[in-house]
Amino acid sequence: MPQTASSTIPMRSFGRHSDVKISALGFGGHHLGEAPDAKTAVEIVHEAVDGGITFFDNCWEYRRGKTEVWMGAGLKGLRDKVFLMTKTCPHGRDGSLALLMLEESLRRLQTDHLDLWQVHGMAFDNDADLFIRPHGAAEALEKAKKDGKVRFVGFTGHQNPKVHLAMLKTGFPFDSVQMPLNAFDATFRSFEQQVLPELTKRGIAALGMKPLNGHGDAIKKGAITAEEALRYAMSLPVATTITGMDSLDVLHQNLQIAQNFTPMTAAEMSALRERCKPDAADGRYELYKLSLKFDNPESRLAHGFPLDTQQSEVKDMLGAPENTGHPFPEKEF
Amino acid sequence: MSSKLEWNRRRFIKSAAVLGAAPLIPGGSMAQQQPAAAQSVPQGEVTKKPLGRTGVQVSAMGLGGYHLGSAETDQAANEIVAKAFDHGVRFFDNAWEYHDGLSEERLGKALKGRREQSFVMTKVCTHGRDKKIAMRMLEESLRRLQTDHLDLWQIHEVVYDNDPDLIFVPDGAADALLDAKKQGKVRFIGFTGHKDPEIHLKMLSHDFPFDTVQMPLNCCDATFRSFETQVMPEANRRGMAVLGMKSLGGSGELVCHGAVTPEDGLRYAMSLPVATTISGVDTMQVLDQNLRVAVNFQPFSAEKMQALREQCRLLASDGRLELFKMTTKYDGKVGREQHHFPTTQELPI
């Protein structure tokens, strides 16, 4: 994959595939759906590519497909310059469903293959069992890879390090694993402590997310600055740090930090962990580990948990004009 | 795996058929239905059991305090307590923060003339704050309960990961328990929580002289983030009395989703090595249903217990029926405030 001339963001190896390089800052797909319109979204994607971001994250279930459609439009003509990832959302259901979602994702993203395809949102204690069972999502990942529709496969989740470890224990040959990594996670139900070393050992690419705790609460309340938070996450032994960008301002802020990135020293990291520790101790800034509110509605439906009707994605889901009764609504955004 | 799923589906249909006979859960719409006339409460009393190493006997069923505040009127709450007492219920649960004090006030009124024969427990709700606040809450609880002492005073809702650390700071809630015991205001002390066995174990690791430990115990808990397998044996080993709660999932989830009938669910919880099983009651129908199990209580055999665990295993495996372990729904307002968590309006689930 050629680097663009203007790229100044550090490039890193994708786990054991050291011939594959990705940008140390990744473009989070979810927030793209919060841009005011398609035109703005396309602009944001263009500027991200110009700024040196090559890693693009997305997901079948974000905003009922809107973020994939907008990203597909933004990457038109730029597809070969980027490393494109999206996620599939069977949430314990059959692999055949995962493959249907793949076809839809490819169509929305206007491409014939993905660089990385991940199983989305491992959250519940039985998710690993459901993934590896006969006819489960594991079989879909194998098939998609064999058919050349995806180069690499992985899984994601933000709830519980133990669920990630259970996934690794299935023995499935994952290329990547995505998880929350930030200065608060460092001392609370910690992916950094429990999962990251295991990935390094196995040569699996670690993809960090929620460097700003998902919605930046800790920053708004003055517990940490955006620069400290992002630098901490990027200084960990990860292939990339994925963060959401819903406006050009946020994009520019992130690009500036990433383009001037120098890793924190071990002492700096340790000092920051200690500073954040009291606020980290009950999970107040990491509610995604504690509340179903931050789980995807699709996942909650699949697991029989009650929907939260105040959640914006549930409102999207239940919105009358879209609620056609068809499981995979095709629509214009 | 798929054959297990098939098996469970058959089970589900079978249980659902059983449930056609109007299961009753607190707050449930079906609680309005009248039970068949034949289903009266049998003669006799609720069985008694030892409260750990204390030498005291308590009724094997306890009346949950929260639902007393949910009963429609003071009069309804009075009648529930009176009837429960008449059938031998002697263990009464409460908490300083339930319904902003209404639950304690109702129990205080209802126990007039019955206080001496009752075992009254309430809980302190510092949620990380210091001894002074705990002692102020104790005085308030005593006043509302119209008594000069408690039989048991427990630290309420130890559910946040740093709660054990906050409770055991000098002049924290643990010190308040010791002081109150020394002053003769409470006979026994303990703690409660519904979230995570690991948090309970962290509490126990302090080697503090708790007399009791309260925890969720039901046939889904048996195979999911299990207090039954992780905490109950450790508490028993230490000679502490185990107090079970949420025998039907907190709001009857186990019953509504076809995991178990109310009778089997309750009888399962009561058959464990516990001192009592605390169950919330907000209508007479629910009380009668409970008493039919608890009066002249007959424990299940080990085989039947195992069969019930297996029956519930698949529904238990992601926590969908034990929302108190999974979501913030069951975490109280005062605790949320003290831990800087969003309110139930901001974070409903």
Topology:
The complex is a heterodimer of chains A (333) and B (349).
Chain A: E1 11-14, E2 17-23, E3 25-28, H1 38-50, E4 55-56, H2 66-74, E5 83-88, H3 95-108, E6 114-119, H4 127-132, H5 137-146, E7 150-156, H6 161-169, E8 176-180, H7 191-194, H8 196-202, E9 205-209, H9 217-220, H10 226-235, E10 240-244, H11 248-259, H12 266-280, H13 297-303, H14 312-318
Parallel strand pairs in A: 3-4, 3-10, 4-5, 5-6, 6-7, 7-8, 8-9, 9-10
Antiparallel strand pairs in A: 1-2
Helix pairs in contact in A: 1-2, 3-5
Chain B: H1 2-18, E1 48-50, E2 57-59, E3 61-64, H2 66-70, H3 74-86, E4 91-92, H4 102-110, E5 119-124, H5 131-145, E6 150-155, H6 163-167, H7 173-182, E7 186-192, H8 197-204, E8 212-216, H9 227-230, H10 232-237, E9 241-245, H11 253-256, H12 262-271, E10 276-280, H13 284-294, H14 302-316, H15 323-326, H16 333-338
Parallel strand pairs in B: 3-4, 3-10, 4-5, 5-6, 6-7, 7-8, 8-9, 9-10
Antiparallel strand pairs in B: 1-2
pLDDT averaged residue by residue of chain B: 91
Rg value of chain B: 19 Å
Describe the biggest sheet of chain B?
8 strands, parallel, barrel
Oligomer: heterodimer
CATH C-level of chain B: Alpha Beta
Poorly predicted runs of 5 or more residues of chain B: 1-21, 29-38
Overall geometry of chain B comes to globular
Structure classification of chain A: alpha/beta
CATH architecture of chain B: Alpha-Beta Barrel
User: Termini separation of chain B (Å)?
Assistant: 30 Å
Estimated share of beta-strand residues of chain A:
15-25%
Q: Number of DSSP strands of chain B?
A: 10
